[in-house]
Amino acid sequence: MPGRFAYVRCTGCKLVQLERTPADLGRYYKGYGRHQPESLPYAIFRRLITGTYYVMPRASGPSSRLLDYGCGNGWYVKAMKQRGWDVYGYEFDPKFARALSARVGVPVVSNISELDSMAGSFDLITMNFVFEHLDRPVEAMASVLRLLRPGGEVVLAVPNLDGREAKAFGRRWFHLDPPRHIVHFNKKQLCQFLTDHGFSNPKVKDLPMATGFAGSLSYLVFGHLHPALWYPGILPGLLWALFVRDGLFRVTVSKPSSVFQPEH
Predict the structure, then answer these.
(1) Can you spell out the DSSP letters for 69-80?
(2) Of the candidates 75, 88, 73, which has an alpha carbon nearest to the alpha carbon of residue 34?
(3) Which of 89, 92, 172, 196 would bridge 71 by S-S if both were Cys, CB 3.0 to 4.6 A apart?
């Protein structure tokens, strides 16, 4: 991205985040690749490679409800609708949310309070490579907890700044992506954050995706993502991911079925 950005690490908890979040953060999402309709080559690539790392269970019944928080170009909500879910999406930009909803045929809201009438009714809430974009993660997860039914699950997939891929490429690491990526939690920090804010039973899984290596190689050579190196970099990226399997990770947590109230 144009401009110079710095990350800082808290001396206490060691959390890494942007030193300053731009006031005009929205302009860094104009033309954002994840918001664009898929080209045919990328759709094939996603179906064969990257899409296999997404959680895609079939609905247990017609009333099973899913919210994709930060639904990007909408491929995931379309796929989950086909798998029987009553699907909703969320995107913070109202204009983009309306256009996406019309294109994919799924309700996409731009204000999370619009879902308040369905509080406690979502069986699954997904945040696929979204959490690192949040400038107010505490408020966001409070909303997610409110919307989730007791016993329901949240699935978050995020980059792993403590992984070997990030250490190998340093400031040229593809998943660093300032200023859109505001905060980088490691596995322990994210699990602790989620349990501190009402969720339980965290389960962690590494996601050895080829995109990190391919994108980082492109940043190393061109200073930005370039298709001339992006697509050729996927094959060595697949080989890289066989051995370096911690470029990204996924955390699954649940909303407790009941809240313990201590006696007074």
Answers:
(1) ES-TTSHHHHHH
(2) 73
(3) 89
Angle between helix 234-243 and 211-222 (nearest 10): 120
**In whole angstroms, what is the distance from residue 34 CA to residue 49 CA?**
16
CATH 3.30.420.40 fits domain 55-156: no
Q: Whole-prediction pTM value?
A: 0.91
Average pLDDT, the chain: 89
Outline where DSSP puts E strands in the chain.
7-9, 16-18, 65-69, 86-90, 108-109, 122-128, 148-159, 183-184, 200-207, 248-254
Say if residue 34's pLDDT is above 70. Answer: no
- The two structure tokens encoding residue 218: 């492109």
In DSSP notation, 176-211 reads T-TTT--EE--HHHHHHHHHHTT-EEEEEEEE--TH
Length of the chain: 264
**Structural Rg of the chain based on CA atoms:** 18
**Where do the domains of the chain lie?**
55-156
**Which H or E element spans position 33?**
none
Q: Residue 187: what residue type?
A: K
- In angstroms, the CA 233 to CA 24 distance is 33
CA nearest to 72, candidates 86, 48, 45, 51: 51
pLDDT tens digits along 38-63: 666 667 667 777 777 899 999 998 88
Structure tokens at 60: 């247990």
